[in-house]
Amino acid sequence: MAKEKTTKRSGTVKAENPNVRHKDAFKIVAQRWKDSTENPKNQVQAK
User: Fold this and answer.
1) What is the CB neighbour count within 10 angstroms for residue 12?
2) What share of the chain is helix, strand, coil (3-state, %, to 5)?
3) Of 2, 6, 21, 43, which has the maximum CB count within 10 A?
């Protein structure tokens, strides 16, 4: 995942949960990325 997207989304998670630690916010971002349709690994390849 690109550093820019991680940083941007970490800020979003922090805004949603102001008391969450940075480490935990990053874990949430990573989980969301894993399941995201924006993740190239989740995009269906046309054959």
Assistant:
1) 13
2) 65, 0, 35
3) 6
